[in-house]
From TrEMBL:
Pfam families according to UniProt: hemP (PF10636)
InterPro entries referenced in this protein's UniProt entry, alphabetically: Hemin_uptake_protein_HemP
Annotated protein name in UniProt: HemP-like protein
Length: 43
């Protein structure tokens, strides 16, 4: 990872639950934490 890459702690993203919606080029993606504490990104 280059030094100019932004790092975000997942605790900040998921502080109010286990799902985050991300909008990229007009499409909505869902990032969620699984029961095994893994991250899944779906469209």
């Amino acid at each position: 990872m280059s030094s100019d890459t932004k790092k975000v702690d997942s605790k900040e993203l998921f502080k109010e639950g286990n799902t985050v919606h991300i909008v990229h080029n007009g499409a909505v993606y869902t990032l969620r934490i699984t029961k095994d504490n893994k991250l899944i990104l779906t469209k």
